[in-house]
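Help needed: design a sequence for this.
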């Protein structure tokens, strides 16, 4: 007989995330999902299922773990939904214990669970551990369960505050579907049978449990260059890597880093194979009529971030694109340079002519002033002689 405890996260005054795009509260969603999960698992043979709470009550984490211990739980599953401070994360993840042998059990369960969520179309953020400052498990439900030697994982189904994920949990029927998926994986993990059959689960994975440990560091590098420029679209060549873990997302800026796009999945990313493209091309729309500062940020499995160098680019106008034949770019460029040189030559000649005319005018004016001055001196001398004669 297998004993399973389902822990609906939060409860009572502890509401969990309240930033659901549909206006719901996490504590109610976890309770509803847990009830569906309880019903699904209870339909299998040779299993007894318990819930840490069946109503909207606040329950200390230690009491939840103590309850699991009191019923001799083989495993406890803590049901949760997620959100992020900047509302830019999306995807599913499983938090697991950091200490052996519970680490092995947590990792072995997380792999088929993540496979099942990926099959539903969710982005995979991995099986992970997290430690507090004292070096023990960060999450209280895992920490308290570990002290009692009970395997426990946190199922973070999706992010309620991101448009990418909200469609997976925006209706009650979606919560039921999550519960059905979870139940099949749990039943497959323990070999439980319903009508004589055990659900098939996908345990395939090329990485090992060492990738679950939080590296708490940023990606090692991110460098960009211009691949090509077509109209207001820049194709940016990106080279980035994290030597210790995977790159998960990237985003880009076209205003010198003041604002960024939403996060985009790294091309070629496959959590189970431990792969992602270390070189790829990003499309970025440039602002018309002014220089755009393009930069890229890459994020690893634990949300560490590294920012690239900045490229300053100017979008090509539609007219410029029409004037420059794509099949003869060099010739067009030379013709454009020749036009520029001719224009500059005309400008120089015009400047010289205007300058010469101005100089001639200055010379003529100066000559007229000198002539007037000489005439004035002659008049002054003549008048002085006449005055002298009158005096003497």
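Sure. Designed sequence:
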């Amino acid at each position: 007989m297998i004993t399973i405890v389902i822990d609906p996260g939060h409860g009572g005054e502890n509401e969990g995330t309240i930033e659901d795009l549909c206006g719901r509260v996490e504590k109610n969603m976890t309770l509803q999902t847990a009830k569906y999960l309880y019903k699904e698992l209870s339909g299998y043979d040779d299993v007894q299922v318990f819930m840490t709470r069946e109503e909207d009550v606040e329950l200390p984490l230690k009491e939840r773990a103590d309850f699991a211990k009191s019923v001799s739980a083989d495993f406890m599953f803590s049901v949760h939904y997620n959100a992020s401070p900047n509302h830019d994360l999306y995807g599913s993840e499983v938090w697991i214990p950091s200490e052996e042998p519970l680490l092995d059990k947590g990792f072995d369960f997380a792999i088929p669970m993540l496979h099942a969520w990926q099959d539903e179309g969710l982005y995979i953020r991995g099986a992970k551990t997290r430690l507090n400052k004292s070096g023990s498990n960060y999450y209280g439900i895992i920490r308290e369960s570990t002290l009692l030697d009970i395997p426990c994982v946190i199922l973070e189904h999706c992010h309620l505050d991101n448009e990418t994920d909200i469609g997976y949990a925006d209706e009650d029927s979606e919560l039921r579907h999550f519960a059905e998926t979870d139940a099949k994986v749990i039943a497959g993990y323990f070999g439980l049978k319903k009508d004589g059959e055990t659900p098939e689960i996908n345990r395939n994975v090329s990485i090992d449990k060492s990738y679950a440990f939080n590296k708490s560091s940023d990606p090692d590098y991110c460098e960009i260059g211009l691949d090509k420029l077509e109209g207001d679209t820049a194709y940016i060549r990106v080279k980035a890597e994290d030597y210790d873990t995977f790159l998960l997302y990237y985003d880009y800026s076209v205003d010198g880093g003041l604002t960024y796009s939403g996060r985009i999945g790294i091309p070629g990313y496959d959590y189970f194979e431990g792969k992602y493209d270390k070189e790829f091309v990003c499309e970025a729309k440039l602002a018309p009529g002014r220089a755009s500062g393009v930069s890229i940020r890459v994020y690893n499995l634990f949300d560490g971030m590294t920012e690239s160098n900045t490229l300053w680019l100017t979008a090509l106008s539609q007219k410029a694109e029409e004037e420059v034949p794509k099949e003869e770019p060099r010739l067009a460029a030379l013709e454009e340079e020749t036009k520029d040189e001719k224009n500059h030559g005309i400008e120089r000649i015009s400047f010289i002519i205007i300058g010469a005319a101005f100089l001639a005018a200055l010379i003529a004016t100066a000559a007229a002033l000198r002539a007037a001055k000489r005439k004035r001196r002659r008049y002054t001398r003549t008048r002085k002689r006449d005055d002298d004669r009158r005096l003497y």
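The two ends are 149 Å apart (CA to CA).
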